[in-house]
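Design job #97: recover the sequence.
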């Protein structure tokens, strides 16, 4: 029998499962096979796109005659060919960057891994949040004024992004930012230890050569979905269970472990409502599957008959989004300077999108601790693949814990199996309740933020970022 530890070991052997890669395809087929063994009819939505890829030995930065260490390449940024591009280094700063100052040159930008107050991104049902701040490099990379397409339009040759506020080990392999379309502007990330040397080089107008010998090739990836028919009076109502398949390590993304456990339960135990299991591809390549939202948005758009009340098909009354199970907490050891597991579990980011579901979570959830603190989606954003369910006003619970290493392509021991097991068991209890005889009205109604509230939240967040960049 395949255990959860076996599945985590499989993820580590596969390595990074970037969208459309061989490793990504292999994991998708693993899940398809397991669903088929449970006698499910497995359906596929195939997405075609141009895949961008580069290996560590194909990126380099030289300033004069010295080599500069790199943390990672900027995904889908651009390509230089093996010879690279050579030009004077120019520092371009601020949120509204004057890219024209680096026309015909290589721009250097400073990106701060900002410690953002949690209340700027999350809301609370009862005045409590599971943590006070969010310090994930996703925020700095996405909100730091780093639109490479504008650099291309200004005639910049390449971009060197320098980390600040994150240790070298934590910055290693970060696949960021991951939401952008192809930028046609080669860019790389430099660790903080090399920051001052690069900034000094801009003051001295030194010349550098940036190499990003990436390749673009046609690729495909499949979103899988299958249905477990309901057998009760609510069989025309659906519960959506979703996760995604692409990821860079054993936490991002291991949600299929929970999805398969819930699919196994549904196959073996009758349930009132119809359950639709969706294994989304494209979370790390969102522009390849949709023009807005998260990757699951593409599946919702393609299959309204399985969830939308505006069709004659099923109406979704609840959803579960499963991501980042069992995440260990890592920190920089003050004695050694190494970024290592510190014996704790990462605090959970657990959304409930209605007050009724928040109360259900408090009663049933056992994950990192016995006392869950479900959060309310903020007006600015709902993180993770649960966001499309929220936008579609489907009441849902979503786990999307965000450790510092979440988007890093690393092969570390990141998963606490005991925590993973408790989280999966909690999702199983939630599925049993949501797919059972309880009336849909008891799940509550999603209330989306209005334009004024969204604008105010966006202004507060951008003001904070601008002040701390």
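Job complete. Output follows.
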């Amino acid at each position: 029998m395949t255990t959860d530890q076996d599945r985590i070991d499989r993820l580590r052997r596969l390595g990074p499962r970037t969208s459309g890669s061989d490793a990504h395809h292999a994991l998708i087929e693993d899940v398809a096979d397991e669903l088929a063994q449970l006698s499910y009819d497995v359906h596929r939505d195939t997405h075609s796109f141009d895949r961008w890829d580069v290996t560590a030995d194909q990126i380099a930065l030289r300033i004069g005659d010295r080599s500069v260490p790199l943390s990672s390449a900027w995904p889908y940024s651009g390509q230089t060919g093996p010879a690279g591009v050579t030009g004077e280094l120019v520092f371009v700063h601020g949120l509204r960057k004057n890219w024209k100052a680096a026309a015909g040159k290589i721009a250097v930008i400073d990106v701060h891994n900002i410690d953002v107050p949690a209340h700027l991104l999350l809301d609370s049902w009862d005045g409590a949040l599971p943590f006070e701040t969010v310090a994930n490099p996703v925020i700095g990379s996405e909100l730091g004024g780093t639109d490479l397409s504008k650099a291309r339009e200004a005639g910049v040759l390449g971009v060197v992004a320098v980390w600040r506020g994150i240790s070298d080990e934590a910055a290693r392999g970060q696949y960021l930012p991951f939401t952008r379309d192809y930028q046609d502007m080669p860019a790389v990330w430099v660790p903080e230890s090399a920051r001052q040397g690069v900034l000094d080089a801009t003051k001295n107008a030194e010349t550098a050569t940036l190499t990003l010998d990436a390749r673009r090739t046609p690729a495909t990836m499949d979103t899988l979905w299958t249905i477990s028919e309901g057998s009760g009076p609510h069989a025309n109502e659906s519960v959506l269970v979703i996760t995604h398949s692409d990821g860079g390590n054993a936490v991002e993304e291991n949600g299929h472990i929970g999805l398969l456990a819930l699919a196994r339960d549904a196959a073996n135990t009758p349930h009132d409502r119809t359950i639709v299991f969706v294994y989304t591809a494209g979370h790390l390549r969102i522009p390849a599957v949709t023009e807005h939202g998260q990757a699951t948005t593409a599946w919702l758009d393609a299959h309204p008959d399985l969830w939308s009340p505006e069709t004659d098909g099923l109406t979704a009354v609840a959803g579960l989004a499963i991501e980042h199970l069992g995440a260990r907490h890592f920190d920089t050891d003050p004695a050694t300077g190494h970024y290592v597991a510190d014996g704790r579990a990462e605090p959970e980011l657990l959304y409930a999108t209605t007050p009724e579901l928040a109360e259900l979570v408090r009663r049933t959830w056992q994950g990192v601790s016995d006392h869950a603190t479900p959060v309310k989606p903020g007006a600015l954003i709902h993180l993770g693949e649960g966001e499309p369910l929220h936008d579609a006003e489907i009441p849902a619970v979503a786990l999307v814990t965000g450790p510092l290493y979440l988007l890093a392509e690393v092969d570390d021991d990141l998963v606490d199996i005991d925590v993973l097991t408790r989280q999966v068991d909690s999702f199983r209890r939630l599925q049993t309740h949501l797919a059972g005889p309880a009336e849909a009205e008891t799940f509550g109604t999603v209330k989306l933020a209005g334009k004024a509230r969204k604008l105010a939240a966006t202004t507060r967040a951008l003001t904070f970022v601008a002040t701390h960049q």
